[in-house]
Design a protein that fits this description.
- The complex is a heterotrimer of chains A (293), B (156) and C (785).
- Chain A has 293 residues and is an alpha+beta fold.
- Chain A has eleven helices and 14 strands.
- Chain A folds into three domains: 46 residues, Uridine Diphospho-n-acetylenolpyruvylglucosamine Reductase, domain 2 (2-Layer Sandwich); 118 residues, 2-Layer Sandwich (Uridine Diphospho-n-acetylenolpyruvylglucosamine Reductase, domain 3), CATH 3.30.465; 109 residues, 2-Layer Sandwich (Enolase-like, domain 1).
- A five-stranded antiparallel β-sheet of chain A has the order 4-5-10-6-7.
- In chain B, a hairpin with a 2-residue loop joins strand 1 and strand 2.
- Chain C is 27% helix and 24% strand.
- Chain C is globular.
- The chains are: A alpha+beta (293), B alpha+beta (156), C alpha+beta (785).
- Chains in contact: A-B, A-C, B-C.
- At the B-C interface, helix 2, helix 3, helix 4 and helix 5 of B face helix 1 and helix 16 of C.
């Protein structure tokens, strides 16, 4: 453990996106630094010892929130606090706002970026559940061009993503049209009432048309190597009439979608129990938002 | 790497190692000691400074990240009316014990009130996450809530 | 007793508040001196190992100053010098080839920058002779087949063998316990276990050692006792005390973690002596967690009572998990017994206390020194007995507690006092009303997701460790008070303010005694060479012992002032008609002759005394209290348990304190708020958990996984009511007693008794994390879902 970052790590500050991508194609053993709320600590404690660190925090071209054709395009360097303060987000993607509200605490929100949170790919990544619910798409760019990675294919394992070595996440596309009439909710369980890493967090959106559930999406973090969609639960709920019984019955099925571990924060039993509980509650809260139940 | 920023209103131009954290630049190069090292992991808030008016934990920020920004520490707020009100209420309420967390707490509260995010006790609990081991927070909440009431009533 | 004080009892801003608020106040961590080297400690990666060789060649090639165990006097020591030497157990070495906990200092380097020092420390290669499996359970450690963590240690100046990893023992018997249990109608026996808490004082430990050109050593460090630090360094390095000066520096909280001299101090001294340059070492937060944490307490307690609610016997077995080195667990065995015995009139008592070594971070005192743990256990049992007997828990306490007129064992068997002030009935009865105790309901009838409950906890702490006879604990203090040439005062003491406002309290006591406004009394800078000995600012003795010493000094100064005044007043004045008091109009003290218009301001007296060569008016006092009276505290807490998540939140708190005369009511409240928050953490979240295979703290010591309460976890100010009892302690300065630890001690019990009242489940192991609540509800078949 130490105070400072080791000397043998080279820091490079590219002037623009183009230069960044060129560097990433040329160099290997690279870590990209955006806000740094995870990476700076990891560099200080020696968890990561890359040869190069490319600092992109100054690239203003990656900071924006635009509403285009039924989807919000969020620049990867938008901070969590900016997401929390944004009127467009509040209006169009309120589930994302609800998540930002429970993200760490103010000092960290002012620095942490949505791109960084995703690329760090912690199983506890806060922005993952809402983005999974929105079926967001992640834009990855490199010198070879750009590609769109659906979020469900983005996480490969703890701290591992689908990004190729030379790719940089530049934008997160959050389609909101399909959730316009859905009720949503976000619940996060911690060890104390204030500010904590999630033990379990659930994001949920549900739509009811003509008395039956026409669309339901549930996502969780901290209960599996990667953030997941609770497909077992969703499958059972689709086309059903919402009732307390079906909600309770289906929530229990979330155990099939998760594999929580025991660690110093909580035993796996408790995580599993909370996953079921929060899934149920998230559904009920989301339904209540649209006046059902 | 060359960086330029203002610290408490004065322009600072430095050539820093990109690995240098903001807390080290402030404490060791610029001798600003009000910024405290409590954990160096961004958890305790004792190192809080304002960057463009927003509170951040300076221990996990690299100095190159604040290029072009306005940085404020308590040393720079001494003549500020809101800060003076806050400081007076902290002192009068008994919200200061060992004092190690105090600069970070006051800066966070200051920013919260200025940005209209803190309007009462519940907001203090929402926005002031700094750790304090001495006071149990009650007097801190009181001092900040009192300051907010004073500010709001003086606005009418 | 007059409650019409001029300064005492009024809220006054603390003298250092402005410096703290503007960030101008410098702590050890902030100190810098040109040419200083930065030190870093090389720590053992194994919890239980023997080292064959340490290769420092690379570090030396880098130009760093390096020390290994071979460079250090191999004298075992104990970093805490509060006990007399005959019962001081020494098993620590400044640097060692035989690390006994993961993180123990093996070697150290100093270099011109943090980075260089870090590089140098990382370049050091350690070869291990043998690595043992760490022993983390004291019961395991005591088994005959377990390897010995220490083989020989010193007790005083004698070497003793350590068997079965037992560090110390203390037994006590009073009366006939077995008969007492036979006579009981109800007997309850329970085992209790705590977590291993960490102080989490906001300022990590630091030290700056400066070798002066004159050959002296100047030391600045985070300490609660500059004098004991000086004595220890003198003993370790064979340097006369007169060549060591330890300077008092503001400290960012302590809670008992610097009663002992922290391990980095002798290491920094050794580096500075070798380098012949100033050396500063400052811990990272993780290192701080490796330097000290609390003991783990294992209790087995059996209590017997008769149907009418009178106790007949108590048996208390106390197994203390010491960690790898002793920071005086022996006196802790004594204080645990003392707290236990002083809680209630048990009539017959049997106590068996054993302190056991394990391969963990050494345990040291944490606010309360066993009292929060003992009071948690006792108050839980008292509640259980009350329930079994069908007696109201508050009444049961009132009828059995050790109170006014009875003997109180502050700080253990050799420190006993008669209780002269007792606010317990007032606090219990008033608090009961305010919290609406009679509406608390029965846990069995509570249903639904959110369930509320109210619990009570009653406790105390001692004020210092004074006594009529000198025993095993050193406790005395001293101060100098002098009148300056303009009528202001300098107050010089070695006592330290950890944040609770102790020194400001002394100022007010001096002010009250002399009639001089507190603004004119200066708290002087202090160092070992300018102050009389003070053992340590701990045991909540700052106000009671330090304050009384200050008052006596003020009394002497007052006498001398009046003598001088007499000389100035060129008339035949009857000395007994001279008075000194505070003049509101002039805002200073005046000496006057009652019944006349003769008066002089203190400023005039001081000036004339100076101009006429009459000498300095001052006092030098060394003082030992003959008593260590208890300050009683009572907590009523209402909690709300979320039976779905297992998370508990505080709804309302009524905290009552009997501090005799409150010198500064604001500070009294601040201690109670802080004590409650600390108790909340103890109850629900705080624990350093050890990996059973490696003996490493899980989470690697990052406070991400050591959660203390935040502002979001405490009740809103409107729901925290404080009652200060109207009592007066005749042996204390203007009737005052201490509070620092009493403010926390019974709160844990109140909180967990409240949880019981909410959900009908008692917890005997701390911390009660959310998963434990859910597990308990599930076992009872009560999980709603």
């Amino acid at each position: 453990m130490m105070f400072t970052i080791p000397e043998d790590i080279e820091f490079i500050v590219p002037r623009d996106l183009k230069e960044t991508l060129e560097l990433m194609s040329k160099l290997s053993d690279v870590k990209v630094l955006a806000g740094g709320t995870d990476l700076v600590i990891d560099l200080k404690t020696g968890r990561f010892k890359p040869k190069h660190v490319i600092y992109i925090g100054g690239l203003r071209e990656l900071k924006y929130i635009c509403d285009i054709n039924g989807a919000l395009h969020i620049g990867a360097l938008t901070t969590i606090q900016e997401i929390l303060d944004s009127k467009i987000i509040a209006e169009k993607t309120p589930l994302l706002r609800a998540t930002a509200e429970k993200f760490a605490y103010w000092q960290v929100r002012n620095i942490a970026t949505i791109g960084g949170n995703l690329c760090n790919a912690s199983p506890a990544a806060d922005t993952a559940p809402p983005l999974l619910v929105y079926d967001a798409v992640i834009k990855a760019e490199s010198v070879r061009g750009s590609r769109l990675i659906p979020i469900r294919e983005f996480f490969k394992g703890p701290r591992q993503t689908a990004l190729k070595r030379d790719e940089l996440v530049t934008e997160i596309i959050v389609p909101y049209k399909s959730l316009e009439n859905s009720g949503y909710s976000y619940l996060k369980a911690g060890r104390r009432r204030g500010y904590d890493i999630s033990l379990v967090a659930v994001a949920c959106a549900v739509r009811v048309e003509r008395g039956i559930i026409s669309d339901v999406r549930i996502a969780l973090n901290s209960v599996a190597p990667i953030p997941v969609r609770a497909v077992s639960v969703e499958k059972v709920l689709i086309d059903k009439k919402p009732s307390i019984e079906i909600i309770e019955e289906s929530s229990r099925l979330v155990v099939h979608d998760i594999s929580p571990i025991s660690d110093v924060r909580a035993p796996s039993d408790y995580r599993q129990y909370m996953a079921k509980l929060l899934t149920r509650e998230a559904l009920l809260v989301a339904l209540k938002k649209i006046g059902v139940m | 790497m060359k960086v330029k920023f203002t610290l408490n209103g004065r322009l600072v131009e430095l050539d820093v190692d990109p690995r240098e954290t903001l807390i080290n630049t402030l404490r060791l190069r610029l001798r600003v000691k009000s910024v405290k090292r409590g954990c160096e992991r961004g958890e305790c808030g004792a190192c809080t400074v304002l960057v463009n008016g927003n509170p951040v934990t300076s221990c996990i920020l690299l100095t190159i990240q604040v290029n072009g920004a306005e940085i404020t520490t308590v040393e720079g707020l001494v003549k500020d009316v809101l800060f003076e009100r806050l400081a007076k209420n902290f002192i009068d309420s008994g919200a200061v014990q060992c004092g190690f967390c105090t600069p970070g707490v006051i800066l966070t509260a200051y920013a919260g009130i200025k940005q209209g995010k803190i309007r009462g006790s519940e907001d203090v609990k929402e926005y002031v996450s700094n750790l304090c081991r001495c006071t149990g927070y009650v007097k801190i909440i009181e001092a900040i809530a009192k300051t907010v009431r004073e500010v709001l009533s003086s606005e009418h | 007793m007059s409650t019409e004080f001029k300064f005492i009892g009024k809220k006054t801003p603390r003298k250092d508040a402005e410096a703290k608020v503007t960030g101008a106040l410098k702590y050890t961590y902030d100190l810098e001196i040109p040419g200083m080297l930065i030190g870093r400690i090389v720590r053992s990666p194994y919890a239980f190992a023997d080292i064959r060789r340490i290769d420092v060649s690379e570090a030396m090639r880098m130009g760093a100053v390096v020390i290994t165990p071979s460079d250090i006097p191999q004298k075992p020591y104990n970093p805490r010098l509060v006990s007399i030497s005959e019962v001081t157990f020494k098993d620590t070495y400044i640097l060692t080839y035989k690390p006994r906990y993961l993180g123990e200092p093996i070697a150290a380097v100093a270099a011109s920058s943090e980075e260089l020092a870090q590089k140098a420390s990382e370049s050091i290669k350690i070869e291990f002779e043998r690595v043992y499996k760490p022993i983390l359970d004291p019961l395991e450690a005591m088994k005959p087949e377990s390897p010995r963590i220490h083989e020989k240690i010193m007790k005083g100046d004698k070497w003793i063998e350590v068997n079965n990893n037992i560090a110390a023992r203390l037994d006590y018997d009073e009366g006939d316990v077995d008969r007492g249990f036979e006579e009981a109608d109800v007997v309850i026996e329970r085992t209790f276990k705590t977590g291993k808490r960490y102080h989490m004082q906001l300022e990590p430990k630091a030290v700056l050692v400066i070798p002066e050109p004159s050959g002296k050593l100047t030391i600045y460090t985070t300490t609660q006792t500059i004098h004991n630090t000086r004595i220890l360094i003198s003993q370790l390095f064979d340097i006369p005390e007169s060549r060591i000066n330890v300077v008092r520096v503001p400290i960012g909280g302590s809670f008992g973690s610097s009663i002992q001299t922290n391990y980095l101090v002798p290491i920094a001294v050794a580096l500075a002596l070798k380098a012949k340059k100033p050396v500063k070492i400052a811990y990272t937060r993780e290192e701080d967690m490796l330097d000290h944490s609390n003991f783990v307490f294992h209790f087995k307690i059996k209590i017997g009572a008769r149907r009418n609610g009178v106790f007949t016997a108590a048996e208390f077995t106390n197994i203390l998990d010491v960690g790898a080195h002793q920071v005086q667990p022996y006196p802790l065995l004594g204080t645990s017994l003392g707290w236990f015995v002083s809680m209630y009139k048990w009539k017959n008592i049997r106590y068996r206390g054993i302190a056991v070594y394990t391969n963990k971070v050494p345990g040291c005192a944490l606010r309360g020194y066993g009292a929060p743990e003992v009071q948690w256990a006792v108050e839980t049992l008292v509640d259980e007995i009350a329930e079994k007997l069908g007696i109201d828990p508050v009444d049961l306490r009132l009828n059995n507690y050790v109170g006014r007129g009875e003997i109180f064992w502050g700080q253990g068997p050799t420190v006993r006092s008669v209780i002269r002030s007792d606010g317990v009935p007032e606090l219990l009865l008033k608090g009961r009303e305010i919290i609406r105790w009679n509406e608390r309901g029965n846990p069995r009838e509570k249903k639904g997701r959110f369930r509320r409950g109210i619990g009570v906890g009653r406790g105390f702490h001692t004020s210092g460790a004074g006594g009529p006879i000198s025993g095993e604990v050193i406790d005395y203090t001293g101060c100098i008070l002098k009148l300056n040439e303009d009528g202001t005062l300098d107050y010089i003491t070695a006592l330290q303010d950890h944040g609770g406002g102790t020194l400001d309290a002394h100022v007010k006591i001096i002010a009250e005694e002399l009639g001089i406004p507190p603004e004119l009394v200066n708290i002087a800078t202090a160092s070992t060479e300018t102050t009389p000995y003070d053992v340590c600012t701990h045991a909540s003795r700052g106000t009671y012992v330090g304050g009384e010493c200050a008052r006596r000094a003020a009394q002497i100064v007052k006498q001398r002032i009046l003598e001088v005044a007499l000389r100035i007043i060129d008339r035949a004045v009857n000395p007994e008609a001279l008075r000194i008091s505070y003049d509101e109009g002039l805002k200073q003290a005046i000496v006057y002759v009652e019944g006349t218009d003769i008066k002089l301001t203190l400023a005039e007296i001081a000036r004339i005394s100076w101009q006429r060569n009459w000498g300095t008016i001052g006092a030098f006092v060394s003082y030992r209290a003959t008593s260590a009276p208890p300050s009683f505290t009572v907590y009523y807490v209402e909690v709300e348990v979320d039976t779905w998540t297992g998370i508990v939140r505080p709804v309302r708190v009524v905290a009552g304190a009997d501090v005799g005369t409150p010198i500064n009511p604001d500070m009294v409240e601040g201690q109670l708020h802080g004590g409650f928050a600390m108790a909340w953490g103890m109850a629900f979240t705080e624990n350093t958990v050890y990996d059973p295979v490696t003996g490493e703290i899980m989470g690697r010591g990052l406070i991400t996984d050591y959660k203390i309460p935040t502002a979001a976890d405490v009740p809103i100010p409107e729901e925290f009511t404080i009652i200060i009892a109207k009592t007066y302690e005749p042996t204390g300065p203007f009737g005052a007693k201490g509070l620092g630890e009493a403010a926390m001690n019974p709160a844990v019990a109140a909180i967990l008794n409240a949880v019981y009242n909410a959900i009908g489940i008692r917890f005997y192991e701390l911390p009660v994390t959310p998963d434990k609540v859910i597990e308990a509800l599930e076992e009872r078949g009560e999980l709603e879902w």
